[in-house]
């Protein structure tokens, strides 16, 4: 049996010397190396920016969506959208565990897991696409995937429905990072607060700011904001177009008596929301960019351009305990869980 | 006289409602609004990523470089490279100050200043290009520019040559951010340490880590590394290709007895260096991306893909006192100043 590298470099076809994520093509042969785990895949949860792009390219036609997805995997050996660069995650059953992982992993054959590493670096083979659930970015397939030794995962909990767990785990990094960043007394703005990761961020922020803090939810439509209001996830609600920096700044200024916010968490999967985030945040404040549509240059030069001394953090989908933190929200807040089940599971 | 907005939104032609930086076209008519400053421009210091792209597109031909630059400014009303999105900065003399700024600014007509906001948002008119100094990314022109009310600047100090001050101010954010981030005892890796901003970062890092810390300089060529060695700016030197993540990781591991580093500062203006930075940094460590070639998605998904819990910060070209901090280095270290004068001034 061939020996594999912990980061999966042995699977890289081109360009040589890179890791699987930046690689344009990786080997998706399903014969495992000694430190790999073979997964029988059941569902792909496509990254929201990627799925939106695919749907648009397909003009909303299901057969065309299937064709685009199959084509991506055939070309690259992984489901990495060539336009957005992003992937997603998957759910499946452990089928084989490489002998070099014995004693190193607590997984066993037959465990149902969600991989918490991106599809943009996961060797994948699609044999058949069974169902496209357009409204929740999920696609049921027949196929196989490989988890590398460094790859993170979560065993699907018994007390939560599978699709619910998958939807929550897909965005697990955002609420966990929010929990780490927010302190009592902070004023926190969640841009895209009515969305899939936004609602979980609001929940964690509200829990952490306490009675002396304030949580502001900004969303683009009255309808979604009403839903979040019903759940009581924030102290103040703003309806605004996140790409309109000037509108966002003015409305946040109004909500904070001109003081602006300590922490902005940006979850909107549309381009050009960097500047609204920067203008809404106090000097010495922090902006956490979780949106995959964030443009590095626009953020860096934008802050400089308006002379704002803010700390801008790039969203890391992984932080210790992120799966546990986000799944726990579903147990703590029955109403939020109900909304999550209706919308995403 | 027309009233202007502090952020310059009154100059945006398209798309409406955005700020000057993300705008594709701004008004470069040189009749000032009441809160603007008119500058008689002498030198443009083009952002290194941008100038490299322009030089490549021009096949190194000076006349072609001039043509590309003029064309950018004619199309956009500002020198924002359409490929890299980045700008640079300029040096010039204050020609007119809007009446609304009276008592708000300490500038006076005739002051020689460097604008510290990006050219990517600065209204600019080029009448003539006099000289292209290819080796230092500087271009002397005849022309005018506008500084908005929120725009930051530095008065050129009397005790340092102008071109030297301009070169230092161009990268002032990086050493100032390094000074804020680094603590005594830290192990710090500067990727691109032999470059223009890298050397200043090394200097600040070395000053701050003290005798219990360690500074590692990584550069791509023996020649430039030898130069930095001669200046004694680091404790350990690595020659490696920063885009080869696996090579970088192995060499940093060797230099740190497998412990890796607390803080990585990335100054390399080439794509695909995100992963080398991530793999070189300890869990819970910090990566400061100052390179304009940084790709947000590659960094975010890259860290998740290898299960690294690192704090990734987007370089903000502005932090309080950045001009003073970086200019002071030239007074403190005569040898570094000599090298800087030879290379960049």
UniProtKB/TrEMBL annotation, chains A, B:
Start and end residues of each Alcohol dehydrogenase-like C-terminal domain:
205-293
One GO MF annotation is: NADPH binding
Q: What is this protein called?
A: L-erythro-3,5-diaminohexanoate dehydrogenase
**Renumbered residue ranges of the record's region Disordered:** 1-21
Q: What sequence ranges are listed for the domain L-erythro-3,5-diaminohexanoate dehydrogenase N-terminal? A: 10-157
What keywords sit in the KW lines? NADP, Oxidoreductase
What InterPro entries has UniProt attached to this entry?
A: ADH-like_C, KDD_N, NAD(P)-bd_dom_sf
**Pfam families for this protein:** ADH_zinc_N, KDD_N
Q: Which organism is it from?
A: Senegalia massiliensis
Q: What is the lineage of its organism?
A: Bacteria, Bacillati, Bacillota, Clostridia, Eubacteriales
Say yes or no: keyword RNA-binding present.
Answer: no
């Amino acid at each position: 049996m061939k020996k594999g590298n912990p980061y999966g470099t042995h699977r890289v076809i081109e360009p040589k010397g890179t890791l699987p994520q930046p690689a344009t093509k990786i080997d998706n042969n399903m014969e495992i190396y000694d430190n790999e785990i073979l997964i029988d895949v059941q569902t792909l949860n496509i990254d929201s920016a990627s799925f939106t792009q695919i749907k648009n390219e397909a003009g909303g036609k299901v057969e065309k969506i299937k064709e685009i997805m199959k084509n991506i995997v055939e070309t690259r050996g992984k489901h990495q959208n060539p336009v957005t660069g992003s992937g997603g995650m998957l759910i499946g059953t452990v089928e084989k565990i490489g002998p070099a992982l014995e004693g190193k992993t607590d997984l066993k054959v037959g465990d149902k897991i969600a991989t918490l590493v991106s599809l943009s670096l996961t060797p994948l083979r699609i044999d058949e696409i069974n169902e496209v659930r357009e409204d929740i970015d999920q696609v049921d397939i027949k196929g196989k995937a490989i988890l590398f030794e460094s790859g993170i995962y979560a065993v699907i909990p018994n007390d939560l429905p599978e699709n619910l767990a998958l939807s929550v785990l897909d965005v697990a990094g955002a609420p966990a990072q929010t929990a780490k960043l927010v302190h009592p007394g902070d004023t926190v703005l969640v841009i895209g607060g009515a969305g899939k990761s936004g609602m979980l961020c609001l929940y964690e922020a509200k829990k952490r700011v306490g009675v002396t803090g304030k949580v502001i939810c900004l969303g683009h439509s009255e309808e979604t904001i009403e839903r979040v209001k019903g759940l009581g996830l924030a102290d103040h609600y703003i309806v605004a177009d996140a790409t309109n920096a000037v509108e966002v700044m003015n409305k946040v200024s109004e909500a904070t008596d001109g003081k602006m916010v300590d922490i902005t968490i940006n979850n909107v999967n549309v381009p050009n929301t960097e500047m609204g985030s920067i203008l809404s945040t106090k000097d010495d404040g922090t902006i956490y960019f979780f949106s995959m549509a964030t443009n590095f240059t626009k953020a860096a030069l934008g802050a400089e351009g308006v002379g704002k001394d803010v700390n801008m953090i790039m969203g890391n989908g992984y932080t210790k305990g992120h799966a546990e933190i986000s799944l726990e929200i579903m147990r703590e807040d029955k109403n939020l869980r109900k909304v999550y089940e209706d919308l995403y599971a």
